[in-house]
C-alpha cells in the first residue's frame, strides 16, 4: 500500500470517519453509494476507497472535464458521461468496464443530490451486462461510518431489485450530509 493510500485513511480518521470492512474482492463490481446528498459524498468515498488500497471509478457529467479539472478528475478515477442520452451513457460505461481488467464502479442510484423516490436502474443494466456483483455501499453522515456494504443478488427484474435495494437501505437508517435530501421510497 502506498503512502497516498495511508494518507487517505489518516485524513478520514482525522475527519472523524470510521471505515467498515474492506473492498470487494472481485475484479469488477458495482458499489452503490447511498445516500447521495452532497458533493462531499465523493470526497468521503474517494478517501475511503483509496484508504483500502483500491481505485474506484465514478461517472461525472462530461461538462466537468475542462482544463485543468479534466485531467485531475480522470487521474482519480472519474469517467466523463453524457447524461442527455441514458442508453448511450450505460453502453459507454459497459464498454469501459469490459476494456479493463479491474474496474470497481461507484454509482449513486438516486442519480442526483436532490430527493428522489424512484431510483435509476442503469446500475442494474450494467451489472447484468458485465456479469458483476452489486454492493450496498454507504456513507452515513449520522454515525460517520463508510463501507462497501454487503453484496446483493440481482434478478432479471430491475424495478423489483431496485425496490428491494431501497428497502434494504431504508432498514439501514442512514443519514445524508443533508438529511432532508435523502428519501428511500
Tags for this entry?
globular, 37% helix, 185 residues, single chain, alpha/beta, 8-stranded mixed beta sheet
Describe this structure in words.
This protein has helices at residues 3-14, 40-51, 69-75, 86-99, 122-130, 158-172, and strands at 18-20, 28-34, 56-61, 78-81, 103-107, 134-140, 145-147, 151-152. It has 185 residues and is of the alpha/beta class. The chain has one domain. Strands 1, 2, 3, 4, 5, 6, 7 and 8 form an eight-stranded mixed beta sheet that branches. Helix 1 (3-14) packs across helix 2 (40-51) and helix 4 packs parallel to helix 5 (122-130). It starts with a helix and ends in a 13-residue tail after the last helix.
Secondary-structure blueprint:
Elements: H1 3-14, E1 18-20, E2 28-34, H2 40-51, E3 56-61, H3 69-75, E4 78-81, H4 86-99, E5 103-107, H5 122-130, E6 134-140, E7 145-147, E8 151-152, H6 158-172
Parallel strand pairs: 1-7, 2-5, 2-6, 3-4, 3-5
Antiparallel strand pairs: 6-7, 6-8
Short description:
This protein has 185 residues and is an alpha/beta fold.
* Fraction of residues in β-strands: 15-25%
Radius of gyration: 16 Å
- Helix-strand string: HEEHEHEHEHEEEH
The helicity comes to 25-40%
Number of domains: 1
Shape: globular
Give the termini distance in whole angstroms.
Answer: 40 Å
Q: What summary fits the major beta sheet?
A: 8 strands, mixed
* Number of H- or I-type helical stretches: 6
How confident overall, as mean pLDDT?
A: 92
Low-confidence stretches: none
Q: What structural category arises from helix and sheet content?
A: alpha/beta
How many DSSP E strands? Answer: 8
Amino acid at each position: 500500500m502506498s503512502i497516498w493510500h495511508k494518507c487517505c485513511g489518516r485524513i478520514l480518521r482525522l475527519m472523524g470517519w470510521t471505515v467498515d470492512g474492506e473492498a470487494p474482492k472481485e475484479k469488477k463490481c458495482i458499489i452503490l453509494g447511498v445516500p447521495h446528498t452532497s458533493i462531499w459524498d465523493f470526497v468521503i468515498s474517494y478517501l475511503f476507497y483509496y484508504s483500502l488500497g483500491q481505485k474506484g471509478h465514478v461517472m461525472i457529467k462530461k461538462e466537468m472535464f475542462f482544463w485543468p479539472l479534466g485531467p485531475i478528475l480522470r487521474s482519480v478515477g472519474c469517467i466523463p458521461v453524457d447524461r442527455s442520452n441514458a442508453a448511450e451513457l450505460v453502453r459507454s460505461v459497459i464498454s469501459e468496464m469490459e476494456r479493463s481488467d479491474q474496474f470497481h464502479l461507484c454509482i449513486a442510484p438516486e442519480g442526483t443530490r436532490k430527493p428522489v423516490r424512484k431510483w435509476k436502474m442503469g446500475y442494474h443494466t450494467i451489472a447484468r451486462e458485465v456479469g458483476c456483483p452489486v454492493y450496498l455501499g454507504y456513507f452515513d453522515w449520522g454515525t460517520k461510518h463508510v463501507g462497501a456494504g454487503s453484496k446483493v443478488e440481482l434478478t432479471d427484474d430491475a424495478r423489483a431489485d431496485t425496490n428491494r435495494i431501497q428497502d434494504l437501505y431504508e432498514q439501514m437508517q442512514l443519514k445524508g450530509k443533508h438529511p432532508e435530501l435523502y428519501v428511500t421510497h
